[in-house]
């Protein structure tokens, strides 16, 4: 290698090392920003200053033009989050020092690093608008350098990114005048700063996004298309090359033959097939037929379960749309939908399936059914209006300006520009995630498969031992091989799969009665073993409908409402809470006394009168504003009762007025107030206002003076307060409702503004959605001017502040108790919601999800910034996730599963389907859930209630308990046969049973009693013990010892009976000790001639003990006299059924011959009874020892624990 080559390689190495070092430093700072709340030793300023150091000394000056794209996306997220920081009062807000520093870093990275620009290019204008807060740097009192820098950042974005070409989309409409002045003032100087070195060609192609926040005119320029003629052929080719074709990922097609082959090649089935072939080869035809029947049943059961599981994949195959009507080069044509590209102009007609995600540019009564995505069967009315929201992740049902792939046009027609295709469409992303989730066996399936392999290994080993012993005794090798095969048949419980399946099916039936519909059978048991339940908030933990929790009025009075979500006016009422007087509050504000923290528990309250003369007029005026500045209502339907009509938030305000005693109808009909005009709610100004006029009363009730006009207004407290010049004064004895509403206001002052701010913050901290209420009285001419001006500002000025109303979706009744039950059962409950973090935390505290032990919460943006491994390593793991996306849900599930935890996940929309499919137990909502979500789920809740999940968990635990009981029972019985064969072989005795007797014993003694164990009642402590560890086997050490003991007892007693009845002359067998006592010969004197008769007695004795063993298997430690004998009537019935079949197989001619049996004398029954008594005594002695050991362990655990209130469960951080 030359000297120059060495120098070149060294330079490359140094550069790579420098990049890795810079990326490492930036990564550390990003993680610090994400975890800032849990790192008290660092401040936001410290971390941002550290990032600035890296920028100034390692990156700036184009020293490092390229950095990792994923890292830059994460950096962009944390900078956006911290650029909006503000300080100052509600009416005078300015950026914090840290917000300015974050914006400076944003501009620097935008200028210096290509990958950061790529990350920015994937944003929408809405995201930047709400993060940049440029207007706060363009106010009249802003510093000149701040204004110039703000102009510089805006120009850098508008000149280099087509989707940001209009700066007005990056600034709220009400603030655009200030920003425009700054741009005009600093345009020439600012444009020279932060100019990006070169515009990358990739930016010529807009990122695939919904663009619901874009004016449709902007899309025409972005895609170089035409709303009349569509794309040109040349532009289409460019877009096709960049974006690719429009198709969904193909799901793997389920093959019936492959599913059958999977069942046939199951390990246990293969072993049973080999044994069956051997039975036919040795002319044991009856044995082979019985085993063959068992194999067929097992294959059918396994195949049916796998076939059901494939349905979610099958549902995806019908999502693609084959044809699309498109305009290109001015010609409308029908083409293969796969040929669509972003920028194409698509025509929609009634009945059409939408071929891609569209931004609508033309609508004519267009309505689209979006049930496949939202679960809502009512068509969504579409429009071309843009939507300005704080985030691009708005609910799909709110995207009125978009049409989504695979949805159907129900009515009207329209046109739309394609904005997302293929995998980037909403349905494409979900389809890809569902397809990518591999089919997983449930925990019980894995454990039973492991148990089966272990039993087969034991069978092969014991078969070899038997053959070896027989050969040593110089017996015929072929005969001994038959003995070994019969032993293998004894070891493998052929009825196990059937019994497990029936037990789970019974659990399914019981769960259905609890409103939990089980789609996949093994999920019955899986739900009982979950360690974490991840639950939606809305509709699952809460009622799913808004209610008014509190109204605060301008005299510092507070009112609460009982049964706030009940639409029935006769249920619930308003209650006045105990509060300080307004003068006392003003005094505290002037003295700088901090706002008091709300006390826990219910504050003292008194019922409010529903008589107009006695009710507090401030409350009545507040409810008048809340119910009349409102387009919703509550109506009574003869068939369905009370029904809400309109927006849920507005319905809650109408209901609050009813509870206070003064409904919307009271103000409109009884008093005679009629709507004059309205300015609807707008997301920019966040206000709604109406004008009402006093007309004649229909019921001759007292009214306001005729031609009195009210402007009633509601909206965001800060926005409303800024438009108020006064506030409603305190009520005096001289003021009734009418005179109080018309009285002169108190002038606005800083003390009252601070009081409103404190009250609003207090209510928000309780998780309430807070709206302000205001009004003013105007003359007829002013009302006409307000109506004719068509400007909301004429109505929404010089207002009188009246109060605040706080609304919330309250917790469902019984959910808190269910969560407490989960905690006592060692199950962690995690709330996952798209709601705001404050609301989520308030509900979580009310429900007990957040308590003294579990306090950690996390937002969706923080989940985005954590890798799966980093999320899994969090200690403690968060119990509340707020503002999450469907991707976040999937990441949370994977993180928990990587810790070895069993996870249940709830969801309703098709967006939730990937996380539901990935979870150990996926739970879909039956009322609000979409069809694909239900197909992907294991369990569907018919009532969408969390309490149902907990009841189903209890039922799942019962199912596993019972599965374990009958497995212990089956293996105890089968091990008795094994030990009997081994001891007989060692003593060189003939087989105590023939092979057909073994098979009959396994059918008679195994299946009916085991099935009856499957319906055993709940254990008393079933919800007071922690979940089973994931890796714990079905047969644990205590269970194995129980099986061993019970098997030895039964086999030992049977062997003694077989020997003492003189099955063979023991004296003639060398090496065998004489064990027959002198008295035994008399008892067994009738059993000296026929080997078949002696085998029948042994068969009868052992099978009878096995049937009695079913009662003894009701508990490993509790006595049969405490568990009860008659409390499970199915077991009593199964005992008599099996015992009847046993007796029939001995005494019915033909049947006894087929099964190698002979009729027995009455002495045989006495012998069997003595055997059962010995068995019960031995088992009770074993349980006595087990109880003592169990009590010792429990005392040890109690001494080591902090007490029941601090109960923790295994593996949960």
UniProtKB/TrEMBL annotation:
Principal location listed in the UniProt entry: membrane
SUPFAM superfamilies: Calcium ATPase, transduction domain A (SSF81653), Calcium ATPase, transmembrane domain M (SSF81665), HAD-like (SSF56784), Metal cation-transporting ATPase, ATP-binding domain N (SSF81660)
One of the protein's GO biological processes: proton transmembrane transport
Pfam families tied to this protein: Cation_ATPase (PF13246), Cation_ATPase_C (PF00689), Cation_ATPase_N (PF00690), E1-E2_ATPase (PF00122)
Membrane topology classification: Multi-pass membrane protein
Keywords from the UniProt entry: ATP-binding, Cell membrane, Membrane, Metal-binding, Nucleotide-binding, Translocase, Transmembrane, Transmembrane helix
This protein's record includes keyword Cell membrane: yes
All residue ranges annotated as the Cation-transporting P-type ATPase N-terminal domain in the record: 210-284
Single GO cellular component term: plasma membrane
Subcellular location(s) per record: Cell membrane
GO MF, one annotated term: ATP hydrolysis activity
Annotated TM spans: 260-281, 287-304, 454-473, 485-509, 1034-1060, 1129-1150, 1165-1186
Designated name of the protein: P-type ATPase
Protein source organism: Clydaea vesicula
Gene: ENA2
């Amino acid at each position: 290698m030359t000297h120059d080559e060495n120098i070149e390689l060294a330079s490359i190495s140094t550069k790579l090392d420098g990049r890795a070092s810079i990326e490492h430093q930036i990564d550390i700072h990003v993680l610090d920003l994400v975890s800032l709340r849990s790192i008290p030793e660092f401040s936001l300023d410290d971390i941002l200053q550290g990032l600035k150091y890296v920028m100034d000394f390692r990156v700036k000056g184009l020293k490092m033009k390229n950095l990792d794209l994923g890292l830059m996306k994460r950096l962009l997220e944390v900078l956006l989050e911290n650029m909006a920081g503000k300080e100052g009062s509600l009416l005078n807000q300015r950026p914090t020092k840290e917000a300015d520093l974050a914006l400076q870093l944003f501009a620097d990275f935008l200028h210096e690093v290509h990958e950061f620009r790529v990350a920015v290019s994937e944003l929408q204008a809405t995201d930047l608008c709400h993060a940049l807060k440029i207007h706060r740097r363009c106010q009249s009192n802003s510093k000149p350098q701040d204004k110039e820098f703000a102009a510089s950042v805006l120009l850098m974005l508008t000149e280099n990114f087509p989707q940001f070409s209009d700066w007005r989309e990056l600034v709220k409409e009400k603030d655009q005048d200030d920003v425009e002045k700054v741009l005009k003032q600093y345009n020439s100087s600012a444009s020279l700063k932060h100019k990006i070195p070169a515009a990358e060609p990739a930016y010529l192609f807009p990122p695939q996004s919904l663009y619901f926040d874009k004016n449709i005119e902007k899309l025409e320029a972005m895609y170089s298309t035409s709303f009349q003629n569509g794309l040109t052929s040349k532009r289409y080719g460019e877009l096709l090359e960049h974006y690719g074709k429009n198709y969904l990922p193909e799901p793997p097609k389920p093959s019936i033959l492959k599913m059958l082959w999977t069942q046939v090649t199951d390990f246990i089935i293969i072993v049973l097939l080999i044994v069956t072939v051997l039975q036919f080869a040795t002319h044991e035809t009856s044995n082979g037929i019985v085993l063959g029947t068992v194999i067929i049943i097992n294959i059918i059961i396994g195949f049916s379960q796998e076939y059901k599981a494939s349905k979610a994949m099958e549902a995806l195959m019908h999502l693609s749309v084959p044809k699309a009507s498109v305009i290109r080069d001015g010609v409308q044509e029908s083409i293969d939908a796969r040929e669509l590209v972003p920028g194409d102009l698509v025509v929609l007609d009634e009945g059409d399936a939408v071929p891609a995600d569209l931004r609508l540019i033309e609508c004519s009564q267009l309505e689209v059914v979006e049930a496949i995505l939202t679960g809502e069967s009512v068509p969504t009315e579409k429009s071309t209006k843009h939507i300005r929201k704080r985030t691009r992740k708005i609910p799909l049902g709110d995207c009125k300006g978009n049409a989504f792939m695979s949805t159907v046009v129900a009515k009207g027609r329209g046109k739309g520009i394609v904005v997302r295709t293929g995998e980037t469409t909403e349905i494409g992303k979900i389809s890809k995630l569902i397809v990518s989730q591999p089919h997983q066996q449930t925990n019980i399936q894995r454990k039973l498969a492991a148990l089966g392999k272990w039993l087969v290994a034991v069978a092969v080993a014991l078969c070899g031992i038997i053959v070896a012993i027989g050969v040593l005794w110089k017996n015929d090798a072929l005969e001994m091989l038959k003995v070994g095969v019969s032993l293998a048949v004894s070891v493998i419980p052929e009825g196990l799969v059937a019994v497990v399946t029936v037990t789970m099916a019974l659990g399914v039936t019981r769960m259905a009665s609890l409103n939990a519909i089980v789609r996949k059978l093994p999920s019955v048991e899986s739900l009982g073993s979950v360690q974490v339940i991840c639950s939606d908030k809305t509709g699952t933990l809460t009622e799913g409908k808004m209610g008014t929790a509190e109204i605060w009025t301008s005299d510092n009075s507070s009112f609460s409402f009982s049964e706030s979500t009940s639409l029935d006016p006769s249920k619930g009422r308003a209650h006045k809470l105990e509060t300080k007087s307004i003068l006392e509050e003003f005094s505290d504000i002037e003295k700088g006394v901090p706002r008091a923290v709300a006390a826990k528990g219910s504050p003292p309250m008194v019922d409010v009168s529903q008589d107009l003369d006695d009710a507090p007029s401030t409350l009545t005026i507040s409810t008048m504003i809340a119910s009349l500045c409102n387009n919703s209502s509550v109506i009574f339907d003869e068939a369905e009762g009370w029904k809400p009509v309109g927006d849920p938030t507005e319905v809650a305000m109408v209901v609050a007025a009813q509870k206070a005693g003064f409904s919307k109808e009271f103000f409109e009909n009884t008093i005679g107030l009629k709507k004059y005009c309205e300015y609807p709610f707008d997301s920019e100004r966040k206000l709604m206002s109406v004008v009402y006029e006093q007309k004649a009363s229909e019921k001759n009730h007292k009214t306001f003076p005729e031609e009195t006009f009210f402007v009633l207004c509601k909206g965001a407290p800060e926005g409303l307060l800024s438009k108020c010049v006064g506030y409603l004064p305190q009520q005096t004895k001289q003021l009734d409702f009418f005179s109080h509403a018309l009285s002169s206001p108190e002038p606005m002052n800083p003390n009252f503004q601070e009081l409103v701010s404190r009250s609003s913050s207090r209510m928000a901290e309780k998780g309430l959605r807070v709206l302000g209420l205001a009004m003013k009285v105007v003359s007829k001419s002013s009302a006409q001017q307000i109506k004719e001006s068509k400007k909301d500002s004429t109505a929404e000025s010089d207002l009188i502040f009246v109060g605040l109303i706080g609304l919330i979706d309250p917790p469902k009744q019984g959910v808190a108790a269910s969560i407490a039950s989960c905690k006592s059962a060692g199950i962690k409950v995690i709330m996952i919601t798209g709601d705001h973090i404050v609301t989520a935390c308030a509900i979580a505290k009310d429900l007990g999800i957040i308590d003294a032990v579990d306090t950690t919460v996390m937002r969706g943006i923080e989940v985005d910034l954590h890798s799966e491994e980093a999320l899994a390593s969090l200690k403690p793991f968060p119990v509340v996730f707020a503002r999450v996306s469907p991707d976040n849900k999937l990441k949370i599930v994977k993180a928990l599963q990587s810790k070895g935890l069993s996870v249940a996940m709830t969801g309703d929309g098709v967006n939730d389907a990937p996380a539901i499919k990935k979870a150990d137990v996926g739970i879909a909502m039956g009322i609000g859930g979409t069809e694909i979500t239900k197909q992907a789920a294991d369990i569907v809740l018919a009532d969408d209630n969390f309490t149902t999940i907990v009841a189903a968990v209890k039922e799942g635990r019962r199912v596993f308990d019972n599965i374990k009981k009958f497995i212990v029972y089956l293996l105890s019985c089968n091990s008795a046969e094994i030990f009997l064969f081994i001891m007989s072989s060692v003593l060189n005795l003939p087989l105590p049973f023939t092979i057909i007797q073994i098979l009959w014993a396994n059918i008679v003694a195994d299946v009916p009693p085991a099935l009856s164990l499957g319906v055993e009642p709940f254990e008393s402590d079933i919800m007071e013990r922690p979940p089973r560890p994931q890796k714990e086997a079905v047969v644990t050490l205590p269970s194995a010892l129980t099986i061993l003991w019970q098997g030895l007892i039964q086999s030992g007693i049977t062997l003694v009976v077989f020997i003492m009845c003189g099955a063979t002359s023991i004296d003639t067998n060398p090496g065998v000790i004489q064990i027959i006592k002198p008295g035994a010969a008399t008892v067994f004197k009738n059993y000296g001639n026929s080997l078949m008769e002696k085998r029948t007695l042994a068969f009868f004795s052992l099978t009878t003990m096995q049937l009695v063993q079913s009662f003894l298997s009701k508990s490993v430690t509790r006595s049969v006299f405490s568990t009860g004998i008659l409390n499970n009537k199915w077991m009593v019935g199964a005992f008599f059924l099996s015992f009847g079949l046993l007796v029939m197989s001995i005494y019915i001619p033909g049947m006894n011959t087929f099964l190698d049996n002979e009729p027995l004398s009455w002495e045989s029954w006495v012998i069997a009874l003595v055997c059962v008594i010995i068995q019960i005594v031995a088992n009770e002695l074993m349980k006595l020892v087990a109880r003592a050991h169990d009590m010792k362990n429990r005392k040890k655990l109690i001494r080591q624990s902090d007490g029941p209130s601090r109960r923790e469960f295994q593996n949960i951080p």
